[in-house]
Write a structure and sequence with these properties.
The chain is α/β, with parallel strands linked by helices. It is built from 13 helices and 14 strands. Helix 7 links the parallel strand 10 (228-233) and strand 11 (252-256).
Length: 382
């Protein structure tokens, strides 16, 4: 198949989940033998071809995602040159340029939905739509979904209920299990602190909950435990708050942002991965935990047991007691208790790490994701 993949609001390569997802899907489909043309906001120095993909440089006007729809004409021009068999577009409320391209090319349109199409309680877009009476944003995003032959999403709850369920491919994101692996080596942006090392990797948004790992280390110090440390990798709006929470604590390292190609070595140098999501801090999660948590898949691929909140969505990813531990966020000290349990039982930690690695390879590799996606795309074009 000749695939046109549209993600013009994603900068590739990059460190965000969307950027990593875009490159992994494009390169994964190319590795399966498809002629993939990907359209993205390429970072300086990105080759026009890489990973078997032909990359086309295009980004929203002035870098504003809200103006992405203004590139529809440019996308149609690319589609006319590429002559794809199928068009895939990463959903965004102000996108939809893939609709025009697929219509002109007379080929199926696939929509990747990684954020809610439906409104959630308190949605700003819903309030604006009500003020405008005719609800233009709802109509536009639903038009994108209606045009799609296939919707690809981690959680069908964020797709309108009227869309046929049989045309939804519910699929997790993944990890590059050939790169993220136990023992991965490379340049390190930190010196390993003493004792068991728990790692958080993320964008330091409020709902990522990085501060909860810092608070857990403080709880452990109050219990007299000095044999557990933490490395927090990344940057973002909550980094300053996490640093303030860590004031006066030993054994906590902040690395700042780290290029994604250095992350395998960073994770391999640690013992436990922590994903302390704070769901009430992100209103859209009232619909469902719709993220496909990249950090957890990479922790597992690196052979790390994962500690995360005990919610239904994460129970499908982390089997508590087998490849990680899920904790009750409503119980004070629960995260610290999970860290303490793994610090006290090296054999359990090793068994969980091995099970996590095996499950990542079998279920959560980008290669697994792309094979499932390929099967669905073939059905669309047949």
């Amino acid at each position: 198949m000749r695939v046109l993949y549209l993600a013009i609001d994603q900068r590739v390569p990059g460190t965000t989940g969307g950027s990593i997802h875009t490159a992994a899907v494009a390169e994964g489909l190319a590795a399966l033998g498809h002629d993939v043309h990907a359209v993205a906001a390429l970072a300086d120095g990105r080759a026009a071809s890489g990973g078997g993909v032909t990359w086309h440089r295009l980004e929203p006007p002035f870098g504003a995602k809200q103006l992405r729809w203004m590139r529809a004409g440019s996308v149609v021009t690319i589609a006319e040159a590429v002559r794809p068999d199928i068009v895939i577009e990463r959903y965004y409320n102000f996108g939809g340029e893939g609709m025009a391209a697929s219509t002109r090319a007379r080929v199926p349109y696939v929509l990747e939905v990684n954020a809610p199409v439906v409104d959630y309680p308190g949605s700003i877009k819903h309030l604006i739509d009500r003020a405008l009476v005719v609800e233009p944003m709802r109509r536009w995003r639903e038009r994108q979904v209606r045009h799609a032959s296939l919707v690809v999403t981690p959680a069908s709850a964020i797709v309108p209920a009227w869309y046929p369920r049989e045309r939804i491919l519910e699929i997790e994101w993944g990890a590059d299990t050939s790169r993220f692996r136990p023992g991965a080596s490379g340049a390190m942006p930190f010196e390993r602190p003493p004792g068991l090392v728990a790692v958080f990797a993320g964008a330091f948004r409020a709902w990522h909950g990085a501060v909860h790992l810092v608070e857990a280390i403080r709880d452990l110090r109050a219990r007299g435990r000095r044999d557990v440390s933490a490395v927090l990798i990344g940057a973002g709006p909550e980094l300053a708050a996490a640093r303030r929470a860590a004031a006066g604590l030993d054994g906590i390292v902040f690395t700042g942002a780290v290029p994604h190609d250095r992350m395998p070595a960073c994770l391999a140098a640690c013992d436990v991965g922590v994903a302390p999501f704070d769901l009430p801090r992100h209103a859209p999660l009232a619909i469902d935990f719709f993220w496909s948590p990249l950090k957890i898949f990479e922790y597992m691929a690196a052979g790390l047991p994962t500690i995360a909140p005990d919610i239904a969505r994460l129970r499908a990813i982390v089997s508590t007691g087998r490849d990680g531990l899920l904790y009750d966020t409503g119980r004070p000290g629960a995260l610290a208790g999970a860290l303490e349990r793994l610090a006290d039982d090296g054999a359990l930690r090793a068994r969980m790490g091995a099970a996590a690695r095996a499950r990542a390879v079998a279920e959560f590799g980008w290669d697994v994701h792309c094979r499932r996606l390929e099967e669905a795309l073939r059905r669309c074009v047949s």
